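Re: weekly structure request thread

Next one in the queue (370 aa):
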Amino acid sequence: MKLAFVLFKYFPYGGLQRDMLQIARVCQQRGHEIHIYTLGWEGDRPADMHIHVLPVQRWTNHQRYRVFCESLQPLYREHGIDRVVGFNKMPGLDFYYAADPCLRDKLIRERSPLVRRLPRYRHFLRYEEAVFGNDSKTRILLISPRQHHIYRKHYATDEERLHMLPPGIDRSRMAGSDAEELRRDLREEFGVADDEKLILCIGSGFKTKGLDRSLKALAALPARLREKTRLIAIGSDNGDPFVRLASRLGVGERFLVLHGRDDIPRFLQGGDLLLHPAYYENSGMVILEAIIAGLPPLVTSVCGYAYYVEEAGAGRVVPEPFSQQTLDSMLADMLESDEAEKWRENGIRYGQTNDLYSMTTHAADLILAP
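Done, posted below.
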């Protein structure tokens, strides 16, 4: 078959983008032809796949997305596409990989009814309805149980169209025999002393991931602990506003921003804690990556994968409603806790005894089913 994989933008260090390419690769390995349609592509292009970048220019993103989607149907016919797999919400999909949170839920919880009438939000709500509404036939690949409840609540989506996928963590994140060597090398490279604590914030979209909350928690640490703690943020995003925030909070010298990179396993071993106080997060792949690497996570309960932290006994979860004071206190407690080694052992054992790795094959099975 000829399969279309569609997303608004590709960049190499995004979780959605990584999942898209991995699922496409599995389908290709089973003998199918892959066409990827997008508005923009950053990084290397797979030479054995057909990459179609549509140069749509409009004043607003939602106008660009509308024109992009309207341009796709003629291209599907021209290229002989058999099935369409979307990684953003839009009409005309056979399958939708549900990496994005429910917009209707977010707007009802956080915005006034008037906001939902703005052209931008009317557009995105129509696209969400086109996937989850009762008039749709799109089959939906869910990546966290939390999504199932939320989408059913707002759209009463038919159960038969909802398919829950297991996680799909890269096994390279697991703690291996070289864990001590990776830790030593990473800390030497960045000048982190043995008696210092290294906090990691990993993930593109610093605002959504709650990097501001992380910096405030760092600044709120008791002085003796703050002076022995470093925070490194890694992701494909503009870090300048957060560098300025760190400076205003008095922790600029304890904070570093790095662009997305390929050597994340080194950081997972070199760090002492993953801090992920996201404002919203459908899943949170990095949470599971930290667990199986033995890096204790501190995450907000809105993260779809937060329940793995508690199930594995590998870290702690900040309850809702969110309180910065609670986060500050929990961070200080975790950094000085004598449970750190137990959290590490529990996480590593959990990764060795649970299926956290087969998402791409399950997704391909559903996409390619007769």
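The chain has two domains: 2-166+358-368, 171-353. Residues 171-353 form a domain with the Rossmann fold fold (CATH 3.40.50.2000).
Next request, please.
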